[in-house]
Structure formats: structure tokens, C-alpha cells
């Protein structure tokens, strides 16, 4: 109180303040004369304003003092994980960001002005240790994607070059719109991005390569991507590619390297889920060509079409050509100069992925010998991942046929939905042709129409469909089913040799002799197991393959047989004319997604229309009931199994038919 009085007297010494105080005294004297009764006194308003102003001034002084107090210890902004100074640290440059200010970034406008005014650093020779200052924030944000588990729904797009980013980003967005996977995009390298190391702009290529490797290592620990999709062209930075390849060797993650023009030719990969993309590098396709006598000229056309196809979605397939005893001179010359892989496909080892099998004996082969020789031409090393495409010399394939096969395989055999519903259990193969008749060669076949699940009364369309009948000119067999067909044919021939009376189910022929003999065994197995083949439909087949019938020849095993019902000269000539004048599909080059219906989105396999081997459309339940009935009939008449006692009944094993034959070891 005493201090306040002193301060008050200090202000009162001022002349102007003294006048104002006189005014206050005058008011008080007048108030006393005007009223003799007691009233509460009113505080002087001007003095209150002075006190408020004084408090405000004192507050400003205290704030300025505290804000500018001398620093007695380390700067609190240095108390962060990257506070250590290591040897060889480059001096701070006006145009480069400092790690000391990472927690307090400068104003963007001021930083832009500094970048314009400061001289640019062109040397990139810094090789010090690196840290990822902002990567942890991005990785922590994806904790709900179950990235800690080896199998999840994460797919990673990665790039370092801005040109590669321009290629990958639209595909990543399109895949994300499909809502089948968690799609992530990682930018690694020297740009101003979260996944870059510190001092990226002045780092050497060797340091950036190590940073890319370590960056992928950290991402893999938090994300475990099922596939990494990158730009495989020269637009990508070399250090990024080297670091990525080192990571792939360690992590064994599937790597999808997109070629040039991938947004058009491989845009179908955006429709796949993470489980299908995980099998991208593991799926292997081989090609088997069985050449019949007098058809070697057609082989040249087939091989040329194979050379012009697009194989950028997978490793180059291995071709096996089964040649007859006699080969014309033009075919020999062509095979001597034929290059496989084609010259436009990189082949650092100069390895020829082609095998020629030339028969020794000039003797005509029987049905059993022809079927055995054909099935012995291929054996899958990994049945779950190795598959074989069977082509006849009369076939000509389109540029997109290989991409179509891989798309169908990944979706209907390896996707998460396929594994959940076990679609691969009944899928025998995938056809590239559209037959006009059933296997008897006489009955016209009209493909069943597809009906939209949400439009019960809607008009059907020519979408892909399922048919129990195998094709003979262009068909892909799944590896497990090929092994099962191999075992089934072997056991059937054993029963035929050991039986005094050959069972009717083995003796009767349902397949016309215009087809190879191995097709009979394929049809019989499909009927027993309830298998089906996926056919493309009329709108898609014109973009896959065409069958030329102008040079049709009767299969070798039926060339010298005695005349029968369908072996008379008139029947043979009618058969040739029918095949020759059959409507031929005109191939048209187009992207795969544009060729497929429903914008390339594949319908569930069980939603497609189903037809039995005779061409009759059935429901799924009817189809399976007929398969169960035929299986019991086959086991009893051919396999020697007793349905009542189950004596000698064997368990079912994958890629084996031992459960169908109780009379064989």
C-alpha cells in the first residue's frame, strides 16, 4: 500500500495530472453541497484506465524478458532422435533443409525465396549415414491393414522417378477404386517425399541405393506387401532398381515390373486382388504343339503368331513341338532359323526356350500310343503353379492371348475369392476357341447365354461360360488336372489290357475321329469328376485365337483304319468340308479390358452358365448330381468297386485317380 501511494504521488507530480486531480476534487465538493445524505462514492474512471494500462505495460515487459531470456543449456529443439552429429556431416547450405529444424519447418514462402536466391548445390557425393525422418509417420498410419501378418491385402506401388510416378499413379488409383486390396504408394529416392533419407538431394547414387534397400526393409516390416508394382522401363532411376532387386532377393516378395505402354496392355492387373498378385511370378505356362503329318506348313503360321504375341506379363513360356516322322523341307528351314524367345524380348543368357521332339519310327501309331506320347510330352514340376497350353498347328493366336490366360488363371485359380469358394477344384482348363459342334462332330452347339444375377428376367448375353467338353485346338490344362489326366489314362489302359471283356464305358467312343484320341480320356475324366472348362464366349474369342480349317487333316491314329460309320470316303470328305467352311474368327488387336465384357470385371465362376458334354445347359446342382451318378457307374463297371461294401475303396488324393480303381494297386 505504501508503494502504491508513492507511485501515485509520482504520477501526481505531473502538471497535467495535477489539473485532472483538481477536477476530481471539484466534483467531490459540489457533491457534498448538493446532498447531505450518505451515498456510495463512485470510483474515478480515469484512474482505472491508468491502472489497466499499467498492467498491460508490465505484462509486455515480462513477456519480452521471458521470450529473450538467454539459453543456458542445449536448445530444446535439438532434443529429438536425430540430435547426434556424425563425422562427415555436410555444412548447412542456404538452399538445403536442416535436420535441426525438422520439428519446426520454415515458412514455405520464405523457403521458396531462399531457394531462388541461394546458389544450387549440384554435387551429389555425400555418403554419410542416413535416417528416414518422416517414414515412421506414414507406416504408423497403416496399422489397421494387418501389415504385421505375412498374408494380408496390402499391395505396394513404388517409384523414385517422377516419370514413373506419372505411369503408376493412375493404375494405383484404379486398383484402389476396386476395393479388393489396400493399395499403397511409396516414393523413394531424392525427391522431397516422406520415404526419402536425410540429405537425399546431395547423396551419391550408392547412398541412395542403400537407402532404397533399407526403406523397403522398413516398409516390409510394417506392411508385408503381397506384391510390389514398379515401372520396369528406363524411366525409373537406376539406383532405385538396384536397391529394389536386392530387397526382392531377401524378402521374396512378388515383383511386378510394368513394361512400356503398360497402362493399356496390362491395365487388367488393376482388377486383381492381393492374393492373385502374390502369385504373379510363381505361375508358369508351357506350350505344347502336337504336329500331325501333312500339317507342318500350318506350324509356320502358328509359330509366327506366337512370336508376335505379348509376353510382358510373365516369363517367356517354353515351347515343346512334337514332330512326326516326315517333315517337309520348308518347315525344317523355318525351324532352323526360328528364334525363341523373339528378338524383342530381353534374353541375357541367350537360352532357347524351345524343345523339338522328332519321332524315330515311321510306323503309324495306335490310339493308345498317340495318347500316351502326347501326355508324356509335358510334366509339371510344380503342379499347383505349372500349367500347359495345348495348341494344334491349325491355330493362330492373337497378341493378347497370353495376357488373357494369365488373367483368367490369377482370378479363377489364385484369388482370395477363388480360394474361399475352391473354384480350382472343378476347373479343368481354359479354352481359347469357340466350337460350333459338340465332340461327336455332328450336333450343332450353341453356347449358353449368361444371365445377370440381378436381372432374372433379363436377356442373356454371350459372356464366358462353362462347358464339360475339352477343346482340342487351343486349351490350357491346369497342372494338377494334367497330372490327374496322366494317371487316369494310365489306369484306364491297364484295365483295358487286363480285362477279358472290356467295359463299355472304356470301349465306347463319344468323340469323333476328327479329333485326337487323347480327347476321349479327357472327356471321360471330366464326366467322372464333374470338371468343366472355361470358354471365352463369342464376343471375346475373336480377340484370342482362330482355327484355320482349310488345311485340315485326319489325325494320324485314324488315317489307315477300316471304313466305319464315320470313316467312309463320303463321311471323310463331308467332315473336311464342314471343318474347312466353318466360320473363321477374324482376329482383331485390342486391349484386354476392352475385349472383355462388364468392363473387364470377371463374374464369379459359379455365376456363369454351365453346359454338360452334350451341350445341354444345366444348373449347378444338376451338373454335380450327374457327375456323382457317373462316378458311381464308372467305379462299379471299370474300377471294380462295390458301392455297398466299399471293399477295396481308396482315399482320394490330389492329382491321382486311385480312388476310382479298386481293382488296381
TrEMBL record:
Swiss-Prot/TrEMBL keywords? Membrane, Transmembrane, Transmembrane helix
Region described as Disordered: 22-44, 82-109
Which parts pass through the membrane? 52-73
| Name by which UniProt lists this protein | Glycosyltransferase 2
Organism listed in the record? Xylaria arbuscula
Q: Taxonomic lineage per UniProt?
A: Eukaryota, Fungi, Dikarya, Ascomycota, Pezizomycotina
Amino acid at each position: 500500500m505504501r508503494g502504491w501511494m508513492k507511485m501515485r504521488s509520482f504520477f501526481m507530480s505531473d502538471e497535467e495530472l495535477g489539473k485532472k486531480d483538481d477536477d476530481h476534487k471539484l466534483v467531490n465538493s459540489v457533491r457534498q453541497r448538493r446532498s447531505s445524505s450518505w451515498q456510495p462514492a463512485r470510483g474515478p474512471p480515469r484512474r482505472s484506465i491508468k491502472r489497466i494500462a499499467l498492467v498491460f505495460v508490465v505484462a509486455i515487459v515480462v513477456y519480452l524478458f521471458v521470450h529473450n531470456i538467454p539459453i543456458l543449456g542445449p536448445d530444446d529443439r535439438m532434443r529429438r532422435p536425430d540430435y547426434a552429429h556424425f563425422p562427415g556431416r555436410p555444412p548447412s547450405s542456404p538452399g538445403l533443409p536442416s535436420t535441426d529444424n525438422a520439428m519446426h519447418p520454415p515458412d514455405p514462402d520464405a523457403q521458396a525465396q531462399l531457394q531462388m536466391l541461394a546458389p544450387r548445390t549440384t554435387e551429389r557425393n555425400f555418403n554419410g549415414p542416413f535416417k528416414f525422418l518422416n517414414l515412421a509417420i506414414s507406416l504408423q498410419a497403416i496399422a489397421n491393414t494387418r501389415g504385421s501378418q505375412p498374408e494380408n491385402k496390402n499391395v505396394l506401388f513404388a517409384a523414385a522417378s517422377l516419370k514413373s510416378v506419372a505411369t503408376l499413379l493412375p493404375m494405383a488409383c484404379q486398383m484402389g477404386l476396386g476395393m479388393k486390396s489396400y493399395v499403397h504408394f511409396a516414393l523413394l529416392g531424392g525427391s522431397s517425399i516422406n520415404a526419402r533419407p536425410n540429405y537425399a538431394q546431395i547423396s551419391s547414387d550408392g547412398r541412395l541405393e542403400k537407402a532404397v534397400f533399407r526403406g523397403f526393409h522398413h516398409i516390409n516390416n510394417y506392411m508385408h506387401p503381397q506384391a510390389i508394382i514398379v515401372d520396369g522401363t528406363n524411366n525409373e532411376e537406376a539406383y532405385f532398381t538396384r536397391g529394389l532387386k536386392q530387397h526382392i532377393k531377401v524378402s521374396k516378395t512378388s515383383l511386378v515390373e510394368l513394361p512400356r505402354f503398360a497402362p493399356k496392355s496390362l491395365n487388367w492387373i488393376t482388377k486383381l486382388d492381393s492374393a492373385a498378385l502374390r502369385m504373379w511370378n510363381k505361375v508358369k505356362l508351357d506350350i505344347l504343339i502336337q504336329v500331325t503329318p501333312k500339317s507342318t506348313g500350318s506350324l509356320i503360321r502358328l509359330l509366327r503368331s506366337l512370336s508376335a504375341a505379348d509376353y510382358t506379363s510373365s516369363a517367356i513360356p517354353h515351347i515343346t513341338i512334337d514332330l512326326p516322322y516326315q517333315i517337309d523341307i520348308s518347315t525344317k528351314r523355318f525351324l532352323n532359323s526360328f528364334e525363341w524367345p523373339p528378338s524383342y524380348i530381353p534374353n541375357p543368357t541367350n537360352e532357347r526356350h524351345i524343345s523339338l521332339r522328332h519321332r524315330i519310327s515311321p510306323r503309324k501309331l495306335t490310339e493308345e500310343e498317340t495318347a500316351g506320347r502326347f501326355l508324356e510330352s509335358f510334366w509339371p514340376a510344380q503342379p499347383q503353379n505349372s500349367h500347359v497350353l495345348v495348341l494344334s498347328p491349325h491355330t493362330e493366336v492373337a497378341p493378347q492371348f497370353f495376357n488373357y490366360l494369365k488373367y483368367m488363371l490369377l482370378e479363377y485359380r489364385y484369388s482370395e475369392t477363388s480360394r474361399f469358394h475352391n473354384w480350382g477344384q472343378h476347373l479343368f482348363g481354359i479354352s481359347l476357341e469357340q466350337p460350333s459342334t459338340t465332340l461327336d462332330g455332328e450336333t450343332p452347339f450353341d453356347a449358353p447365354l449368361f444371365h445377370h444375377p440381378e436381372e432374372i428376367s433379363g436377356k442373356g448375353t454371350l459372356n464366358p461360360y462353362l462347358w464339360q467338353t475339352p477343346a482340342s485346338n487351343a486349351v490350357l490344362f491346369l497342372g494338377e488336372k494334367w497330372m490327374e489326366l496322366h494317371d487316369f489314362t494310365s489306369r484306364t489302359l491297364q484295365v483295358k489290357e487286363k480285362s477279358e471283356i472290356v467295359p463299355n464305358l472304356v470301349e465306347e467312343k463319344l468323340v469323333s475321329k476328327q479329333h485326337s484320341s487323347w480327347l476321349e480320356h479327357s472327356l471321360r475324366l471330366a464326366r467322372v469328376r464333374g470338371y468343366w472348362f472355361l470358354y471365352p464366349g463369342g464376343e471375346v474369342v475373336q480377340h484370342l485365337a482362330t482355327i484355320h480349317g482349310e488345311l485340315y487333316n485326319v489325325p494320324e491314329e485314324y488315317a489307315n483304319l477300316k471304313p466305319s460309320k464315320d470313316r467312309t470316303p463320303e463321311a471323310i470328305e463331308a467332315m473336311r468340308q464342314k471343318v474347312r467352311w466353318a466360320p473363321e474368327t477374324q482376329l482383331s488387336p485390342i486391349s484386354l479390358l476392352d475385349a472383355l465384357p462388364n468392363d473387364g470385371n470377371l463374374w464369379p465362376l459359379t455365376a456363369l452358365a454351365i453346359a454338360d458334354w452334350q451341350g445341354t445347359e444345366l444348373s449347378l446342382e444338376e451338373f454335380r448330381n450327374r457327375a456323382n451318378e457317373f462316378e458311381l457307374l464308372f467305379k462299379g463297371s471299370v474300377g471294380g468297386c462295390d458301392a455297398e461294401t466299399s471293399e477295396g475303396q481308396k482315399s482320394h488324393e490330389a492329382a491321382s485317380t486311385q480312388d476310382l480303381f479298386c481293382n488296381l494297386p
